[in-house]
Write a structure and sequence with these properties.
Blueprint (H helix, E strand, L loop, with lengths): L1 H28 L11 H31 L21 E7 L4 E6 L5 E4 L3 E4 L5 H16 L3 E8 L2 E8 L5 E6 L4 H7 L12 E4 L5 E4 L2 H5 L14 E4 L8 E6 L5 E4 L6 H8 L11 E5 L2 E5 L13 E4 L5 E6 L5 E4 L6 H7 L7 E10 L2 E3 L12 E6 L1 H30 L1
Parallel strand pairs: 6-10, 11-15, 16-20
Antiparallel strand pairs: 1-2, 1-5, 3-4, 6-7, 8-9, 8-10, 11-12, 13-14, 13-15, 16-17, 18-19, 18-20
């Protein structure tokens, strides 16, 4: 009997707890409050919901803009963009922000036909305009359409495009550039200028039909950034070889472009120095060296001058302690003197021998005289190292010359034979 009463009490207690749980669940499921009988209560709830939805949409739009900004490719810049020089083009990314009755925060990409679409308004043509002009045009349209209290248009990412380069470069072709990159960036992407490039007459052909002729040497000698212009979408750059009509010479020194130059009529050492701006550099004017047919001629420009001949190698030594490396190397010029450095270490500093150069055929000059270094001898400041043709390339060039002569002779023979029949 006692056992039966105990079981009955447990069942009743469990039923009571289960009923309370059901009542709590009903309260938790009640999402709609009771009608309080106040006019407009449902409208107040609807308006609050719309505000909450608008806030959520704005947060979502801001988050999406931030995410897209993080995904954009980073492009290195050489400083703040000049709004009067930067030209807007396809795929430039703008950020349009408007704070008014309608709040907007969106990224806008310039379309291939040069349009920027203002959200809720429409397209504005800005392609080909400078940044300052294009920005003003967009701001004027925003003010006309929205009458906002505050608004902003910013350039958040610059476009990447294709440009072309050909001529005296290692690898002609098409390359991708950022809109803030310059002429020399494109040359470097193409493997650099080869040994006979004329950097004083580079031509840039633009889609507008404009052709620029650029002398980039002031960029190297004086740091003149205007001599290294921006490259635009679709530009074609041509690096001409040096004009070898009168022959080719090589020039080495400090503060100048080292390498091959075209010989001009009646060129002299002093005229050449004036053209290169040598007189503004820390060069030793009394000890200019001209290597001609394995003979070194010393020229004191302060009191004398000599005419130049084709194939001359002219060295403008510096007062500073330096070693000059020239001839058939990749990047000849003046290099700081390091005690204990070998001849081959300096050739390595100059980029190593070119395709036709050979470390087995080297000449060393000291104070205008050719010297031979012994096993224990060291280079001294002011020494000049010249790398010559390899023996193989000498024979190769000779063979090619003979082959051309033979080929031309055979062609002439057959032509004469046909005409006489």
């Amino acid at each position: 009997m006692l056992k039966r009463n105990y079981i009955t009490m447990i069942i009743l207690f469990s039923a009571l707890l289960f009923g309370q749980a059901l009542d709590l669940n009903k309260i938790g499921q009640q999402s709609k409050p009771a009608d309080l009988g106040v006019s407009g209560s449902s409208a107040i709830q609807t308006g609050a919901s719309q505000i909450r939805n608008n806030i959520e949409k704005l947060k979502t739009a801001q988050q999406q803009a931030s995410q897209r900004l993080q995904q954009l490719q980073y492009t290195p810049l050489d400083g703040v963009i000049d709004g009067d020089k930067y030209i807007i083009g396809p795929n430039d990314m703008l950020r349009i922000q408007i704070w008014s009755a309608v709040t907007i925060d969106e990224l806008v990409q310039v379309t291939p036909d040069g349009m920027a679409v203002i959200p809720g308004y429409g397209p504005v043509e800005i392609g080909g305009l400078t940044w300052n002009d294009g920005k003003k045009k967009i701001l004027d349209e925003i003010e006309k359409a929205y009458h906002p209290k505050r608004f902003a248009v910013t350039l958040v990412a610059v476009r990447v495009f294709w440009a072309n380069i050909t001529g005296a470069v290692e690898l002609s072709g098409s390359y991708q550039l950022g809109a803030t990159q310059r002429l020399w960036d494109l040359v470097q992407l193409a493997g650099g200028a080869d040994g006979i490039a004329d950097l004083t007459n580079i031509e840039i052909f633009r889609n507008t039909g404009e052709t620029l002729t650029v002398d980039i040497t002031p960029y190297f000698t004086d740091g003149d950034i205007d001599a290294n212009p921006y490259i635009f979408d679709g530009d074609v750059v041509f690096l001409p070889p040096v004009n070898g009509k009168n022959g080719i010479i090589q020039i080495y020194g400090t503060g100048i472009r080292n390498g091959f130059y075209g010989l001009k009529n009646d060129e002299t050492v002093r005229n050449l120095a004036q053209q290169l701006g040598i007189f503004t550099q820390a060069s030793d004017f009394s000890n200019v060296q001209v290597l001609r047919d394995n003979d070194m001629i010393i020229v004191n420009m302060l009191s004398e001058d000599i005419p130049l001949q084709k194939d001359d190698i002219i060295i403008f030594p510096a007062h500073l302690d330096s070693i000059i490396v020239g001839g058939l190397v990749l990047n000849g010029g003046a290099f700081p003197y390091y005690p204990g450095f070998s001849v081959y270490a300096y050739i390595a500093l100059a980029g190593g021998p070119s395709d036709k150069g050979s470390e087995a055929r080297i000449s060393i000059y000291r104070n205008g005289k050719k010297i031979l270094l012994g096993k224990d001898d060291m280079l001294k400041p002011g020494d000049v190292i010249i790398v010559h043709h390899s023996v193989f390339d000498r024979f190769k060039d000779l063979f090619e010359s003979i082959a051309k002569v033979v080929s031309a002779s055979i062609s002439i023979y057959y032509l004469i034979d046909r005409l006489t029949k």
